[in-house]
Write a structure and sequence with these properties.
Layout (H helix, E strand, L loop, with lengths): L10 H7 L24 E6 L14 H10 L4 E3 L5 E3 L19 E5 L14 H11 L15 E8 L2 E6 L6 H6 L6 H4 L20 E7 L3 E6 L12 E6 L3 H10 L4 E3 L8 H5 L4 E16 L9 H9 L3 H8 L5 E2 L22 H10 L3 E2 L5 E3 L2 E2 L1 E5 L5 H15 L4 E4 L4 H10 L5 E6 L10 H4 L20 H12 L3 H18 L3 E13 L2 E2 L18 E2 L2
Parallel strand pairs: 1-9, 1-10, 16-17, 16-18
Antiparallel strand pairs: 2-3, 4-6, 5-6, 7-8, 8-9, 11-18, 11-19, 12-19, 13-14, 14-15, 20-21
Helix pairs in contact: 8-10, 14-15
């Protein structure tokens, strides 16, 4: 069920196929093997950041997704080729099967009747209704309400069927629901405040694995769900091991203490060596994640466009990619990956020119002091940059930027923190000056970035979303609304090209590169399949097994 890339489709055709594909995922699997008749063995996943959020509807970061995909289930998921596959639903709704009306407003979803929550209670349409209504409840700290807030007249037709109307046609909602995990009404609906429910630290889902334990600062353990409705799981245990030091992680992968490295698990400087490790399989997979310097646009040091332009001219992006990342990532100008059907290849390419950077700052009235650092109107051009402590590769990139920007009269100081600290309220509520971060901006195969760039999606100003830059642009707001409502693919692409141009011109982020993720698995692990449309390559651990 995927959109063809182009030419344009009308609304009827688009609703008949449900989604748009990102191509070229670089997916590699270790072949096939007959899975064991019962769950057997375990896999230890190495993570450089610590999962800390276990309610899948609340604000979190990408590392939490690996746990979510295995504890919970969406109505349907999105596969590496951009197509959708039914999970809790019997089928993905479309025009062809009667699940979506021709105008895109009326939806009908039929559910499987054999699904149980981990505590044995049946999963029903009431849980879906509860999940959508919880996300849209203004008292609940939702990660995002985008799309869900357009649902009207949500009606349970029967135990395994429900209908709703959209307040307006929404081309993104199929993809949004592929990233929305269902939660149990009988648990969260029975508590006074779902924001602080015990469930959030001992979750109950419908996924292939059940909650085991969390040892803070060390690991999360999941156990096989013996009553899982789908194929698998084939492992008895799935362990997410937190290893903040990248050198230690690589050492443990090399010695066999961990079976799979995820989230920057193998740094580019070790790629050549890793490829030669006996009993290990290494792959380089394009990721939808874009590495950038993300400014807090409410901070006076970086609020002026001239400053951001100068910082971008003063960034030796090529040196960072070549010297620190060994040339593996591709330079980025957009927030979308090059594999997206909406990607704008015509964006201006960054030029490294300290001379132009200095000219821009001089013209804007930023004057050098006796120490060489500029100031204007009592504001010194000095700011912090933060990222995950212990990520040596990013720390090296930070050191280069300190030198680059000192040459143009800007003082960047480094303020790194543990993942659980920096990517919590410090990032979510825009308490930073700037951060170095990798972000997947779209929604699976869809290029919608309402969560990231709409002025209504700024958590620090009471919005629901992930616009932590505090970017506010009336033209982009209008384009985002148009993009959601447009079903003709060619017209949608034109809209998202315009959004990319606005974001690039405003330098809401200083894009560096599109990640090429180096991941390694132990030989004999079957089922690992990178997915550029998921936020974690642990998306299908329920299908993993060890070759006998």
């Amino acid at each position: 069920m995927a959109y063809p890339a182009l030419p344009s489709l009308d609304r009827r055709a688009l609703l008949g196929v449900a989604g748009a594909a990102l191509l070229g995922t670089g997916a590699r699997a270790q072949g096939t093997a007959k899975p064991p008749p019962a769950p057997k063995g375990q896999v230890i996943v190495g993570l450089s950041q610590e999962p800390t959020r276990f309610n899948p509807l609340m604000p979190a970061i990408e590392v939490d997704q690996g746990v979510w995909w295995n504890l919970f289930s969406p109505l349907w998921n999105v596969l590496p080729d951009g197509t959708f596959s039914a999970v809790l639903a019997k089928e993905v709704p479309s025009l062809a099967n009667g699940g979506i009306s021709a105008d895109g407003l009326n939806w009908r979803v039929r559910l499987r009747d054999d699904v149980k929550w981990h505590d044995g209670k049946p999963f029903t349409a009431e849980d879906v209704k509860f999940t959508i209504e919880l996300v849209t409840n203004p008292k609940f700290r939702a990660g995002s309400r985008a799309g869900h807030d357009m649902v009207r007249d949500l009606t349970v037709v029967g135990p395994h069927e429900l209908t709703w109307k959209m307040s307006a046609a929404n081309a993104v909602y199929i993809s949004r629901l592929a990233w929305t995990f269902m939660v149990p009404k009988h648990i969260l609906g029975a508590v006074a405040d779902p924001n602080d429910a015990p469930f959030n630290n001992a979750p109950v889902g419908t996924g292939p694995f059940m909650w085991g334990e969390r040892v803070a600062g060390d690991h999360v353990l999941l156990r096989a769900n013996p009553h899982y409705f789908g194929d698998g799981p084939y492992l008895e245990r799935l362990v997410f091991k937190y290893i903040p030091d990248m050198t230690v992680m690589y050492t443990q992968f090399r010695t066999g203490e961990i079976d799979y490295t995820s989230i920057q698990g193998i740094t580019p400087d070790r790629y050549a060596e890793a490829r030669k490790l006996p009993g290990r399989i290494i792959s380089v997979n394009p990721s939808a994640s874009i590495e950038s310097i993300t400014p807090n646009l409410e901070m006076p040091q970086v609020s002026e466009l001239a400053v951001r332009q100068a910082l971008y001219y003063g960034m030796n992006k090529k040196a960072i990619i070549d010297a620190i990342y060994y040339g593996l990532p591709t330079p980025a100008e957009s927030f979308l990956p090059k594999q997206s059907w909406a990607y704008d290849a015509g964006l201006p390419k960054q030029e490294y020119s300290p001379a132009k950077a200095n000219q821009i700052l001089d013209a804007a009235g930023w004057v050098r002091g006796s120490d060489g650092i500029r100031s204007k109107g009592g504001v010194r051009l000095a700011f912090t940059n933060s990222t995950t402590a212990g990520n040596q590769v990013r720390e090296q990139a930070q050191q280069l930027l300190v030198q680059d920007w000192k040459a143009i009269g800007a003082a960047m100081s480094i303020k790194n923190m543990p993942a659980a600290v920096i990517w919590g309220d410090y990032f979510r509520l825009s308490k930073f000056d700037t951060v170095m971060v990798g972000v997947t901006f779209g929604i699976g195969p869809d290029p919608d970035v309402t969560d990231r760039f709409a002025s209504t999606a700024i958590p620090a100003k009471g919005g629901s979303g992930r616009n932590t830059t505090q970017f506010a642009n009336a033209k982009v707001d209008k384009l985002l609304r148009e993009g959601i409502a447009e079903f003709d693919l060619a017209k949608r692409k034109a809209i998202y090209v315009a959004i990319q141009q606005e974001v690039r011109n405003d330098l809401a982020i200083l894009p560096m590169f599109q990640y090429a993720t180096i991941e390694g698995v132990k030989q004999g692990l079957v089922g690992y399949k990178p997915n550029i449309n998921a936020l974690s390559n642990c998306w299908n651990c329920g299908s993993w097994s060890w070759a006998s």
